[in-house]
Structures are given as C-alpha cells and as structure tokens.
Amino acid sequence: xxxxxRLVLGAAVAALLCGGSLxxxxxxxxPALAQGEPPAPLPVELxxxxxxxxxPIWQVGEDDSGGxxxxxxxxxxxxxxxxxxxxxxxxxxxxxxxxxVDHAAVFYFLKNLSPGDLVNVVMxxxxxxxxxxxxxxQYDDTDTPMDQIFGNADQPHLNLITCGGVFxxxxxxxxxxxxxxxxxxxx
Length: 187
Fold this sequence. Notes:
By secondary structure, the chain is mainly beta. It is built from 2 helices and 10 strands; from the N terminus they run αββββββββαββ. The protein has a single domain, classed as Beta Barrel (Sortase, Chain: A). A hairpin with a 2-residue loop joins β5 and β6. The radius of gyration is 15 Å and the shape is globular.
C-alpha cells in the first residue's frame, strides 16, 4: 500500500470514526492463499479485560473514496479486512468509536490501557489470540503515522484506533487519534 493511499485511508478513518458519516458495511474477502494452503481463521470477537470490552468484530473494507469503512454501531468494532489478519505478520487494524451521539461507545476507555494489558481476539475457528499492549499513543489528526499503524511488520501486531482530544462541532471531528499498539504473545 503506497504512502499516499495510507494517508487517504487514514483521513477517511479519522472522518468516519470521529464524526464523519458512516459508510455501509461490505463483506470482506479472506486473504489470498497459496495453492493448497488452508484458509486463515478470521477475527469475530474482541475482548479487553482491563477495560471491560467484549465486542463483536465486523469486517470492514474500503469505502468508495478508498478509506476504511467504519463500524455502524457504538458497540461493535471494525477489522480492516483488506489489510493484515490478526495473528499473521503485519499490522492488523481494528477501529471503534469513542462516543456515539450522547454516550460513550465501545472504545471510550481504550485510553486507560497500559503496557502489558492483554487484548484477546477470538477467531472464527474458536481459537483465541492474545496480544500484549506495547504502548498507547495519541497523535494530532494531521500527523497520524498511517504507515506505522497499517503498514508491514515482521511480527504479528494488532493496532486499535479511535478518536481522542477535543471534538470540534464545526467540523464534526476530533483533533487527535488514539492508537494502542500491541504485539502477539507467544502461547
């Protein structure tokens, strides 16, 4: 994925999660497989015990402008299915709303995570992948490192993204992005 495409994707994620209109849900396809390779399991549930999150994971793709679709619920999260699958090398991304009209949404307490906290992903084959939080960072809306969040990596990472900072009522957007970086824990 080119840097320009990642920047466009990042701007769309920001707009969708932080006040923009919600895109429609489209089913994503499983990643391409080598001949004879069994399909990789896909994520279906996100559990973060430290902040009492237990949410369904919806597959989201790209919207018509090439940005990441957003979950259309305050209680579900969206996995960027055209990107990396959780548990495989690369930066898998799951996005969720911080608030919803007049109440806290699924990722409201994400800011309270600390290094070492566990993030569990239940896969559609019943397996559970555990990721440990490495760091929690907040970036200015215009300076979010999209390549670091969505890009290639040698190890399996799961990055959680939501809005942060101050909500601007004139633009219907938050001025920061909160990102939780995690790494797969070897069981």
